[in-house]
Amino acid sequence: MTQAIRCWVVPLTLALAVGALASARADEQLVDGIAAQVGPDVVLVSEVNELTSSVETRARAVGANDEDVAKMRAEILERLIERRLLEQMVKRAELQATDAEVDSTIKVIAKENGLTPDQLRQSVEAGGLSYDAYREKIRSEIQRTKVLNVMVRSRVKVDEHEVRKAYDERYAKQPDGGEEVHLRHILVTFGGESHRDEASACGQVHDALSRIRAGDPFEQVAHHLSELNPEHGGDVGWVQVSSLAGWMSGVVHKLEPGQTSDVIRMPFGCNLLQLVERREFKKKSYEEVKPELTAMLFEQKTEEEYVKFVNRLRSQTYIEKKDLTPASAPKVTLPPPPASGSDFSEGSLDAP
């Protein structure tokens, strides 16, 4: 999969919770194609189409071809299958998120973004997403976190020798002094797998620079454009000046905190750098960075355990993927929505 497509596929885990169909009246039936059978549940072709359409236009605009889009659809289907498996485990383990938990989480999100809950709602709806769908997205994320806490994180342990090894690998060759900088970076590649020419790539970066200098936050622009850490707004973190690449060092040296560079054309792509802060470099002792390294290792091991957990769920569940072409996909007639609290769980989904 090309770099251009990865920047759209990476955020899909969050987007999957939004893939709800338009609600039908209780006395109506909906006929759709089956994309996959997941135990007693199904993934509908329309769900795959809905999520694909939300990113396909933008992906094609940055050079995606039919093969890239087909890979993206397959990835979306896999994530929807994973979503069904987690939904089944949530029901089985009674880990549903309550309305109160959803309300509380939305209040926190609004506060972190400097908004009131009403302003957040207006922002969501202005972006083309219904507020009900947004609430279900939040509910799904809360439930996923509960599954992680109960089924995965409780099994993760970080030993002292692992932390010490990470310290030796990261900090054994610390310089005696100098300066370090906190950077953000936007990168748009051209040539090769990107399917973009230099003019197109650098044109996008020039547009990004104009938006940033007009007041748009760098991290927001990077989130939607950069091929480097888009999920973190292009944040590179703290870097020792002595370890910067030559082309970066000269640019960063001229920047003041808060400033963004001009567009930097390199053989691999077009770039923007933003200097967030400078500070004197000081050697970090083991005790000083131990909490940070422990947290990093814990999250790494959690992700590894989560993959194993999902794979166990897959091995315990009947899963059959169908042809994603709507005309050839098996048809399913959905009955009216069940009464609240109904449980259609079947078979065994033993916790690991």
Mean pLDDT: 81
Overall number of structural domains: 2
Q: What is the correct CATH architecture of the largest domain?
A: Orthogonal Bundle
In the CATH scheme, what's the topology name of the largest domain? Triger factor/SurA peptide-binding fold
- Give the amount of beta strand, in percent: 5-15%
Helical element count? 12
Give a quick account of the main beta sheet: strands, pairing sense, barrel closure.
4 strands, antiparallel
- First and last CA, distance: 32 Å
The percent range for helix content is 40-55%
CATH class of the largest domain reads: Mainly Alpha
Write the layout of secondary structure elements.
Layout lengths: L2 H7 L2 H4 L14 E9 L2 E4 H17 L4 H28 L5 H14 L4 H10 L4 H22 L7 H12 L7 E11 L8 H16 L4 H8 L9 E6 L5 H9 L9 E3 L2 E12 L5 H30 L3 E3 L9 E4 L18
Antiparallel strand pairs: 1-2, 1-7, 1-8, 3-4, 3-6, 5-6
Helix pairs in contact: 3-4, 4-7, 5-7, 8-12, 9-10
Give a quick rundown of the structure.
The chain is α+β, with helices and mostly antiparallel strands.
Observed structural traits:
alpha+beta; Triger factor/SurA peptide-binding fold; Chitinase A, domain 3; four-stranded antiparallel β-sheet; globular; disordered C terminus
